[in-house]
Write a structure and sequence with these properties.
This protein is of the alpha+beta class. The protein has 10 helices and 5 strands, in the order ααββααβαββααααα.
Amino acid sequence: MTGGAPQWVERLAREIGALGQAEGGTPERALDRMSVAAARAVPGCSAALVVIWRDVGPGGDGDEVAGGHVVVDYGASHSDLSTAFEYQYTTDQGPAVEAVREMRPVAIGDVLREDRWPDYVSTAVQCGDRSSVTYPAELDGEVVTFGVHSGRGDAFDVEAVAPLVALLAEHAAMALHSAGRYTDVAREAAHMRRAMSARAVIDQAKGIIMHARGCGAAEAFEELRRVAQRNRMKVTEVARSLVEENTAERPRPAAAAQRRRM
């Protein structure tokens, strides 16, 4: 899709590439801006998601998903799409997870007709993620998945949009690679923040809610999602705050023993 591509496609691909190499911004900020640019320009698209995955191999550190991949960093144009992706990551179900696991494009005409990811459907609908096209591209031992999403079913002509999303994914991967953004130190810091913390913290927060309310895991996650939406936060941020509050409220053993002696 190079020689005969419409001018706006070429402009968007160049913009995606430039954002990946922009000076003075964090990797997460660059990914956020890429997703916003795609959501604004791709016909039928109401939100976009760009994820950097790291291949840790089977048994890498106990937190891997999607065939041995963990999230290094990601950017979403809208907070609801962040929520939907975080649910994908914690349940190991959904289009981005499947795209990196299978290393192939994944298209959803309407999530209501999907039977591949039964646990994901409800959250996707609540987050306005009805249809999407996601494409993976290799990035120097890592993988970029680039997804365009819509709140309407059958919003995309897959034959027309898939080559465009592939082009955007490849431009994003090339830009991030040439910019040298992901040094070993940056990878490790992001890996700790995203891969090891996200799933564990959300699971801890769900456990706290389930214990307090006597509810199931799905209802607990839904409560986290509602709080995140209301406060314009990511689900992981809400979960981390809840866990920190409960940890702070729990007295340390030495302090508790001292109070008992008093």
